[in-house]
User: What shape does this take?
Amino acid sequence: MNYFQAFSIAALIQFLLAICAALGMLKLARRNGLFNIIEAELASPKPLLPNTKIAANTHWTGIAGLDSFLSLMVMFFTPILDRRNISLYVQGLHFYGLLMAGWILVFVESFRFANAGLALSYAGLAGLLMELGGFGLFLPLWCLLHITTSPLALGPEVYAQPNATALMDLHDLKAIPWALLLGAGVPGAMILSTKLPYTSPGLRSKQLWILIRIFHPVFTTLAHRILKQVTSAPDAMFAPPMQQKEAVLEGLRSIYKVATFISAVPHLAVLAVVLLAYFSPAFIRNETRKALKLSAIWTPAPFWTSNIPKISGLVEGISIFLTWDELVAAASIVAWAFAINRNSTANSKDVRELPLALLHTAFLSVVLGPAGAAVSLIRERDETFFHV
Assistant: This one.
C-alpha cells in the first residue's frame, strides 16, 4: 500500500468517526430525552443539580442564552463527579485519562515548525470545541485536518525534511508542561477540593470550577503565552542543530511520559476494579459488583434504529452520551497515531509488518489505554524523524 492509499484510508476513517460521533452523541441525546430532561430542570423555578437537593447556579454572565448553555454543561458533568453513580463515575475517570492525554498531543502538535500558520496551530480553539461540542466529535475532525494539512503527516518518503520541521521553539517546549499544569491541572484539583453546596460564583464553588475546567484549553493557551516570556533556554537556542534536536527530543520525551502516565493510571485502575469485581465477587458488595460490569460502565446504545427508547433518567442518558464520546475518541486518536506512525517509519529498517504493527498497537492500548498507545506511537514518530 503506497502513501496516498494509506492517506485516503486514514482520512476516510476520521470522517466516518466524526459522523458516528454526531449520531451516537447528539442524535441520541435529542431523541432519547437527555437534552429535554436537562432543559426542563433548568426551566423550573428552582433548578436542582441531578439527584441532589442542591440548587443549581443559573446566573453566570447575565446573558440569558449563554447562562443557559453554561448551566447545561454543569448539569451534565455533575453526575459524573458523583461517586454514588458508580458506573458513571468509573466511566468518567477512564474518559478523563483519554481526554487529557489526547489534549496534550493536540497541544504539542500545534507548536511544530511544520504546522506554523496552519489551523492546527490554534490548539486553544480546537480544545475548546472538543470540550463544548464533544471530544468524540471534534477530535476526529482535528485528526482529519492534521492528516490532510500537516507536512508531518506525509512522512519521510514524501516530505524531504521532517527532522527539521518536527522541531519547535525551545521556549515553547519548556513552557508547555507548566502551562498544562496551570491551565488544566489546577482546575481539576479544585474540582476535587471544593463542594457542591457553595453555589455562589466564588472560588469555593465546585460548579464554578467545573466550568473553569471546561475552558481549560483557553487558560492553558494563555498560560503558555505568559510563561513563554519568562522561560528561557539561551544556550540551547544557539547550540548546533544536532544539539537542538536532542534538546527538543528530550523535552518531548518528558512530556510524553507525563501524557502516558495520565492515560495509563486511570485506565489500569478501572481495568483492575473491573477484573476484581469479576474474579473476586466475594470482596465486593453485590450492588457495586453489578455497577462494575463492562456492560454497566459502557452502554453504546444503537443510534441506527428508528425506534430509540427514552432514557429512564439523567444518569443513563449521560452514560450513553459519554460512551459514544469515549469510544469514538479512542478509535480516532489510535487510528490517527497509527497512520502517522506508519507514514513516518515507512523507510525505517525497523518498520514492522502491518499485522505485527496492529498487534503492537492493540497491546499498547490494553496496557496504556488508547491515548497512551497514541502517545507511544507519536513518540516513535518523533524518534524516527529526528534521526532521519
